[in-house]
Amino acid sequence: MSGSIPSTSSATSEICPSVPPQLEMKAQPRKRQYVQYYPNMEAALTAVNDGLSTRMAAEKYDVSQRTLYNTAKRRHPKKAGRPNTFSLEEETEICEILIRCSKIGVPLGKRTLIKIVKAVALVKGKPDFVDFRSYER
User: Fold this and answer.
1) All structural domains of the chain with their residue ranges
2) Tens digits of residue pLDDT in 88-137
3) Which residues contact 70 (CB under 8 A, 6 or more apart)?
4) What is the DSSP string of 84-136?
5) Furthest-apart CA atoms within the chain: distance in Å
6) What pLDDT is stored for residue 52 in this prediction?
7) Which of 27, 30, 79, 108 is 20 to 30 A from residue 47's alpha carbon, by CA?
8) Under a CB-based contact definition with an 8 Å cutoff, are residues 129 and 85 in contact?
9) Whole-model pTM above 0.85?
């Protein structure tokens, strides 16, 4: 094995394109991709919207009746998971600040990183993000 630098994940290179090779991170293990369990769901929804009952459409298109009903009635419209706190531009700005700090030799520990992100959150007007009491020890 030679002393080569491990490659970065695609997400890191998109957010921080000018990361020096010394700061590149190892590629993260890939997350499982979403699997569409019911490929006929769109056709079944169209049939329900055209007047077919959810039970009949579920049988005809081999789709779960409850899933079809919930989708047709929009019972779960929100995406699963936590929403993003920062936009892509704000994350890029934080990356640039961190890269500038590393270039001038500022030691970046956990608390310094939290202080930088907290300051950016305050400037951007994100008061709900500012509470870091659980992280500071």
Assistant:
1) 10-30+82-129
2) 888 898 899 889 988 998 888 888 888 888 888 888 887 766 555 554 44
3) 76
4) PSS-HHHHHHHHHHHHHHHHHT----HHHHHHHHHHHHHHHT-GGG---TTT-
5) 67
6) 92
7) 79
8) yes
9) no
